[in-house]
Design a protein that fits this description.
Distance between the termini: 19 Å
Structural class: alpha+beta
Bound molecules: zinc ion
CATH topology of the largest domain: Helix Hairpins
Number of helices: 5
CATH architecture of the largest domain: Orthogonal Bundle
Oligomer: single chain
Radius of gyration: 42 Å
Length: 279
């Protein structure tokens, strides 16, 4: 059911002038306080096309597959970096542990040499002392064996970690190349999109300059919530929301002067009449 603002009728349209009021509380096809010639109204369709194009470009820019791919590669790169830090820290710890163990082996070996020299020099004669020295040398040899085994074990662990480090470094390098490649492809796509957007924006500026300020303000106000502010009425259907207008609304539009600016009852966009409107 149609309602007319302020009790206005198609033959007695609402008064004009003053700031553009917010969306009125009534429902139905709305006559706006703005009036514009059919030619000016057609300019809004050009604006709507350009805004649709700009929105599509923005959507394409944000949805580029390279953007998602880069995010994935960069996440992997960050994981690799963390793994490398852990591996290198562990390698540093192992190197220190190995040096300590090697120093221990060296001390035991020196002690054995010293004891052996005393034994060889015949300095120890007393049987009890001799037994003690020999058993100390035996113990030291066992200790040396254990320590050397420990060193070997540490060396094996280092080798394993070093090959892990080489593997991670290699992967990081090839990932770096891949990231550079995807970045270059993304930037090329950005450049193409940005050039198209700049051209569309420039064109939009020219079109907007030809639309009267009150009409443009109304269009932009609707565009902020709807993406585009105007839609063609084609064969009795609003091309913005794709809903067909009922017969009463169509009759009302038919009865409206060509410079009346009407809005769709459903989507609130400005409805533009053309020869294809089916009126
Ligand atoms: Zn609509």
């Amino acid at each position: 059911m149609l309602c007319w603002p302020g009790g206005a009728t198609p033959r007695n349209p609402p008064s004009l002038g003053g700031p553009i009021p917010p969306d009125p509380p009534w429902e139905g096809l709305t006559l706006t306080p703005v009036k514009a010639s059919p030619q000016t109204q057609l300019r809004l369709l050009e604006l709507a096309d350009l805004d649709t194009k700009l929105a599509r470009l923005d959507h394409r820019r944000r949805g580029l597959p390279q953007v998602e791919e880069l995010a994935r590669l960069e996440a992997r790169e960050s994981e690799l970096k963390d793994d490398l830090v852990v591996t290198e820290t562990e390698l540093g710890d192992l190197a220190r542990e190995q040096s300590r163990a090697e120093r221990d082996v060296e001390q035991v070996r020196a002690r054995i040499e010293k004891d052996q020299a005393r034994l060889d020099a015949g300095q120890v004669i007393a049987a009890r002392e001799l037994d003690g020295l020999q058993s100390e040398i035996q113990n030291l040899h066992r200790r040396q064996g254990d320590l050397e085994e420990g060193v070997l074990e540490l060396m094996e662990r280092r080798e394993t970690l070093e090959s892990r480090q080489a593997e991670l470094t290699g992967e990081r390098e090839s990932l770096g190349g891949e990231i550079a490649d995807v970045t270059a492809r993304r930037d090329a796509a950005f450049k193409e999109i940005d050039e198209q957007a700049a051209a569309a924006s420039e064109q939009r500026g020219h079109v907007a300059a030809e639309v009267p300020a009150d009409m443009l303000a109304l269009y932009d106000q609707i565009r902020r919530t709807k993406g585009v502010g105007a839609a063609m009425l084609r064969a009795g259907r609003c091309e913005g929301c794709h809903l067909s207008l009922n017969a009463a609304d169509l009759n009302l539009i038919r009865a409206s002067a060509p410079d009346e600016v009407v809005r769709c009852e459903e989507c609130r966009r400005i409805l533009i009449r053309t020869p294809e409107s089916g009126l």
